[in-house]
User: Which sequence fits this backbone?
């Protein structure tokens, strides 16, 4: 047990690639927390996908023992938070578990949109913030300019920003000293009833569910009977420990400390991030503030390419859901794609991560349908239904009006690309809220429909700004708009997986664009195929895919038979991967590509 | 050899529906053409005697397996078999005559380049027994001949065609169309000139870019420009059918046209899914032995083939499953402008014909059914791959 004055709890705030994980590695390494031989790059990011994409999804924590220059021994607890907007709520809980933050900014790049979103979370949590300028070893580093930008854009004093190269180790010692002397010690009362915040939880194949906690008041010991204040669930604590970063068992956790417990909890679903853990008897009366259950905002259908793999997909999704309470799923049947699941995600990155993990860890090839948001459909009889899937849209005759979710989007972009960014936002039905400059970079704030962003907005933004823009958003609420369901008919048959919700004013344009795209994506058949976009019974756009005119092997003699037969067999296997509508084969990529807007 | 034996009495005689032929592959060329993906090699010195005796040995070996059969055709393909010296050809054909009974109308075809050296050998080939020649003319303008890597000129080609028609009972020549930057009108003119040469048989191939050829490499690098778009290629195909038919040379197969009775008997063995022995480097064969049909493939490297031909070590032999045979029978049989017997299909394939798919193909005008047989319509022929793929996909 360490007295409160010698504990420092902190997080690191940074944009992707600004060196958060490398800095964390260096802090761990320089304090000999991990033996040299066990050190590997980006120690805290465990999953492959996280490591590859340089993002952190689950909160990770490490306890660092550090003897400061004043000769006193300190315990430094780092919580490494998920940096992405999809996990904003999880970030906010992690922030509440610590008292200070290191704000890491790449001295060659400057402040990015994601830095802003996370730093505001830190400010909201009343953190003491120590700016750290990273990558100062690079020739393009411009510390003075970036420090000025931090002051201009974020409004915190950057005059004593620490200059660091996490790569070479310059400034690491200064950073550790700053953590000790510039960040506040935690507060808490060991004699008060137990209040521990559930910061995160995950499934460990050997230990079951592991819960990361921060003790606010009271003391948590092995064998204690505990209660989750939000869910009411009760458990006996099996194991208590800290991360160094390997799990190390301790006897108890006292105020200010961060560690883990295991308590025979079966599923991650049973634990809610932000919940308050107290003792079953003589527990706290009031939970910690700020709890909110996480709610999926983006939905899409996941279908196996090979319909025989449906059961495998179910198995994979159930296993992933065990470890991810924020991901929802229900079975979905599509005339087009067969059996699959309608899944809900916290955002686009979350969607991609889950999809990639299913494909990679479970080796199931997936067809992903276009992401959709939740619409509020107000019916004439006064009932409101939440629409997760355009295919479920009620008949227009019973619908009074629709509401769609809107976001506040913050985009930082070099001013040479500003025009393109404004054009893109206008095209996506955006309303400009703010436009300010910090040096040669513009910060624009837009009110946008989430629907216009969930699909390919970020890709388009990257492409029109050559990758120089950064983007973040937060949900703001629902607003009524003139929205309709647009169906796509291929060879006179509606293809449910291609239905989308669109704004009425843009329906013709979107319909035309989709029909044109599909005309290119669907291979020619032996007959001509009409491709139509329709609202209700009214066709608003039409293209015709001409019939195949020539596909014949010129030479096929005795020596060619074996090879041509193999080609046919390959083709037969390929045909199985297409989806058949009547007699039309639609390639799987068409379901996503048809929705991409190039202009 | 793969496990599994589908031997049954019905198959023993099935090959007789297509007959029995011999294919001899001569793997050498003077130069490699950029579009050609056949097994051809450029080699300065060829020990003709060694090759002649290797072929003769192979004929003996295959002959022992196919005792008592009547041979309908011999086909010398390549490579450039007209680079074979006359004694080599004599040795091979003598061995053939010693091995099998030849049908009265046996067809012995030699592929030849229309160069002056070859022309001088025509009479010698005829005297050795060749009665049909197939000339690789490929184009009737000198610029395109050069682009196609051909060593002869249009004048030489015309002379070769004329002399071959005098020397051999039957003569055919090949043209490649839908070439780079070729217009519909240019092809029309060229085909008119070709028809005026009065060959009884023409093979008219649309240029196909094959992987592993010089054209294929250029195509992959995006450097093979001016290839006709599908619609133009389709127009060229349609025009070809029209003009040949008007000239009395209807298509009896996708790319082959003949005066009635002048069809290539050897190639019909392939399309009617008969038996054929394939000898020489890279040669393929289909042989029914004891009620089981096998696919044979010889080693393609000429030196390795020559070293290991004895004792059948030069080839791999795979039994064909009913599914394999079903696919091959449809793939080959539907190329012909004559009906494919559905009952024969069912006997060979050990499964019923996919009637529903057949009906669908009929409804969209691709095939016709009459008297328990199926034939591809003129509308279906240009998209034959799609028709075949549809049928194959419906098979078990």
Assistant:
């Amino acid at each position: 047990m360490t007295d409160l004055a010698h504990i420092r709890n902190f997080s690191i705030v940074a944009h992707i690639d600004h060196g958060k994980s490398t800095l964390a590695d260096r802090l761990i390494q320089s304090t000999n927390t991990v033996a040299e031989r066990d050190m590997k790059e980006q120690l805290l990011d465990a999953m492959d996908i996280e490591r590859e994409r340089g993002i952190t999804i689950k909160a990770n924590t490490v306890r660092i023992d550090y003897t400061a220059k004043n000769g006193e021994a300190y315990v430094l607890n780092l919580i490494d938070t998920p940096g992405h907007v999809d996990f904003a709520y999880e970030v906010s809980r992690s922030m509440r578990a610590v008292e200070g933050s290191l704000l890491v900014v790449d001295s060659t790049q400057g402040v990015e949109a994601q830095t802003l979103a996370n730093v505001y979370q830190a400010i909201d949590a009343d953190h003491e913030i120590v700016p750290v300028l990273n990558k100062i070893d690079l020739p393009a580093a411009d510390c003075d300019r970036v420090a000025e930008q931090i002051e201009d854009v974020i409004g915190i004093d950057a005059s004593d920003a620490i200059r660091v190269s996490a790569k070479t180790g310059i400034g690491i010692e200064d950073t550790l000293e700053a953590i000790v002397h510039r960040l506040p010690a935690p507060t808490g009362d060991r004699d008060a009833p137990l209040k521990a915040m559930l910061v995160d939880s995950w499934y460990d194949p050997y230990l079951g569910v592991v819960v990361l906690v921060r003790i606010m008041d009271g003391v948590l010991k092995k064998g204690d009977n505990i209660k989750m204040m939000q869910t009411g669930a009760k458990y006996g604590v099996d194991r208590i420990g800290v991360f160094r970063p390997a799990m190390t068992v301790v006897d108890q956790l006292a105020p200010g400390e961060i560690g883990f417990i295991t308590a025979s909890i079966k599923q991650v679903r049973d634990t809610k991030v932000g919940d308050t853990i107290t003792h079953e008897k003589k527990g706290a009366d009031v939970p910690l503030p700020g709890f909110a259950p996480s709610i999926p905002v983006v939905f899409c259908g996941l279908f196996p390419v090979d319909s025989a793999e449906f059961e495998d997909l179910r198995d994979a999704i159930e296993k992933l859901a065990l470890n991810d309470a924020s991901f929802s799923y229900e079975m979905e049947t599509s005339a087009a794609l067969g059996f699959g699941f309608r899944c809900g995600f916290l955002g686009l990155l979350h969607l991609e991560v889950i999809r990639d993990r299913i494909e990679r860890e479970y080796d199931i090839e997936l067809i992903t349908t276009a992401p959709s948001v939740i619409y509020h459909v107000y019916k004439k009889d006064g009932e409101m239904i939440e629409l997760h899937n355009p295919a479920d849209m009620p008949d227009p005759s019973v619908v009074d009006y629709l509401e769609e979710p809107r976001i506040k989007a913050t985009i930082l972009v070099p001013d040479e690309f500003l025009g393109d960014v404004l054009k893109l936002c206008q095209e996506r039905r955006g309303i400009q809220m703010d436009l300010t400059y910090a040096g040669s970079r513009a910060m624009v704030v837009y009110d946008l429909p989430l629907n216009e962003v969930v699909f390919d907005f970020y890709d388009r933004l990257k492409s029109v700004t050559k990758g120089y823009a950064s983007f973040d958003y937060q949900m703001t609420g629902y607003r009524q708009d003139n929205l309709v369901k647009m169906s796509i008919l291929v060879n006179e048959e509606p293809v449910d997986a291609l239905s989308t919700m669109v704004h009425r004013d843009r329906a013709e344009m979107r319909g035309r664009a989709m029909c044109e795209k599909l005309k290119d994506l669907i291979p020619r058949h032996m007959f001509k195929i009409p491709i139509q976009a329709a609202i209700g019974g009214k066709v608003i756009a039409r293209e015709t895919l001409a019939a195949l005119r020539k596909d014949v092997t010129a030479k096929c003699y005795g020596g060619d038979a074996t090879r041509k037969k193999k080609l046919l067999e390959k083709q037969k296997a390929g045909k199985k991967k297409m989806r058949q509508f009547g007699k039309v084969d639609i390639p799987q990529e068409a379901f996503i590509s048809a929705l991409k807007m190039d202009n | 050899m793969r496990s599994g034996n589908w031997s049954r009495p019905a198959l023993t005689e099935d090959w007789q529906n297509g007959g029995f032929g011999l294919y001899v592959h001569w793997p050498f060329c003077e130069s490699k053409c950029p579009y050609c993906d056949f097994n051809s090699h450029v080699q300065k010195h060829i020990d003709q005697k060694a090759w002649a005796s290797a072929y003769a040995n192979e004929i003996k070996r295959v002959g022992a397996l196919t005792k008592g059969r009547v041979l309908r055709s011999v086909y010398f393909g390549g490579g450039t078999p007209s680079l074979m010296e006359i004694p080599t050809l004599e040795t091979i054909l003598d061995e053939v005559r010693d091995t099998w009974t030849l049908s009265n109308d046996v067809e012995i075809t030699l592929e030849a380049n229309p160069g002056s050296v070859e022309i001088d050998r025509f009479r010698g080939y005829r005297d050795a027994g060749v009665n049909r020649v197939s000339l690789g003319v490929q184009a009737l303008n000198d610029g395109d001949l050069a682009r196609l890597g051909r060593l002869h000129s249009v004048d030489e080609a015309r002379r070769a065609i004329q002399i071959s028609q005098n020397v051999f009972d039957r003569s055919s020549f090949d043209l490649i169309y839908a070439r780079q930057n070729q217009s519909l009108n240019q092809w029309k003119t060229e085909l008119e000139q070709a028809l005026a040469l009065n060959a009884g048989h023409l093979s008219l191939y649309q240029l196909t870019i094959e992987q592993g050829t010089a054209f294929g490499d250029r195509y992959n690098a995006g450097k093979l420009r001016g290839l006709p778009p599908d619609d133009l290629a389709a127009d060229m195909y349609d025009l070809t059918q029209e003009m040949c038919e008007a000239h009395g040379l209807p298509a009896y197969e996708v790319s082959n046209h003949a005066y009635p009775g002048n069809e290539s008997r050897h190639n019909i063995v392939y399309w009617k899914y008969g038996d054929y022995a394939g000898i020489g480097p890279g040669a393929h064969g289909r042989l029914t032995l004891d009620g089981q049909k096998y696919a044979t493939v010889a080693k393609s490297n000429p030196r390795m083939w020559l070293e290991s031909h004895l004792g059948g070590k030069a080839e791999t032999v795979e039994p064909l499953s009913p599914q394999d045979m079903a696919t091959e029978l449809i793939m080959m049989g539907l190329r012909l402008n004559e009906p494919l017997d559905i009952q024969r299909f069912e006997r060979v394939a050990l499964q019923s014909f996919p009637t529903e798919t057949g009906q669908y193909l009929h409804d969209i005008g691709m095939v016709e059914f009459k008297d328990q047989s199926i034939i591809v319509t003129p509308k279906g022929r240009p998209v034959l791959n799609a028709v075949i793929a549809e049928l194959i996909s419906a098979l078990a």
In short: Chain A touches chain B through 25 residues (CB under 8 Å).
